[in-house]
Amino acid sequence: MKAQEEINFNRIAKAISYIKANFKTQPGLEEIAEKVNLSPFHFQRLFSEWAGTTPKRFLQYISIGYAKEMLKENQSLFDTALETGLSGTSRLHDLFVNIEGMTPGEYKNGGENLYINYSFAESPFGNIIVASTSKGICHIAFYDDENSALANLQRQFPAARYQQILDKEQQNALYIFSHDWSKLHQIKLHLKGTDFQLKVWEALLKIPMGRLATYGSIAKQLQNPNASRAVGTAIGDNPVAFLIPCHRVIQSSGALGGYHWGVNRKTAMIGWEAAKTNV
């Protein structure tokens, strides 16, 4: 590692340690930058390059991780907000909505009062489980064992009510496997994710069938060219297989890269779509 790179690495490591140790006081950009002897502007840019996110966003991730643990221990929303260093429940609410895509109350009750329909189906690439709420598709995954597939779905919202039924939302989603993507706009999605994840998944939906993109090109599209690694993580967390086409993203070298449901399946998907668009 070059001398300047080592200095920068040590500065960011020190900043991360400081944020972790002091998140309850919610330190600002100027305070953290001062601890590593950088101007706020330079520190913001350097931190984003090395960590793939901003100092503020990293602080939010640390804060929400602590808040989630408190809520799991049945602490009140008010006590959780104060213990996390937030001024009140309204800031805790904003933090959860921005990072988790749900309110702290919804997180705490594990999806209570949420009704989820699910069904099992076959696809050209293996068996899938597809699930939906009244708002739209919330989950599609490939599976080898039905019981394990259902258990994985239920872990996301342990307090939700489930019933095995094929509804209209699921039928519209399954239509994609046997027809083209011209009716994609008719499919509604109900996704839970951070603001960054939602932006990545939205970008994936814009990749045309039969075409490929790179992690770097997605990052540039989001105006964050140094966030390729963060983009890759968000793609790996995609809750709706195939419909949100994370299989269309490859490495800049041309290598396929990883895939949550197996590289062989990713290869088959890319080839299948290429054949359909070249007909």
List keywords for this structure.
279 residues, alpha/beta, 4-stranded mixed beta sheet, 13 helices, globular, methyltransferase, DNA damage
Main pleated-sheet profile: 4 strands, mixed
Please give the order of strands in the largest beta sheet: 3-2-1-4
Oligomer: single chain
In what range is the share of β-strand residues?
A: 5-15%
Give me the count of strands.
6
Q: Shape from CA axes?
A: globular
| Cα distance spanning the termini | 50 Å
Output the radius of gyration.
21 Å
Spans with pLDDT under 50 lasting ≥5 residues?
A: none
How would you describe what is shown here?
It contains 13 helices and 6 strands. It has 279 residues and is of the alpha/beta class. It has a 4-stranded mixed sheet, sandwiched between helices. It has a two-stranded parallel sheet with strand order 5-6. The model has no long low-confidence stretch (mean pLDDT 80).
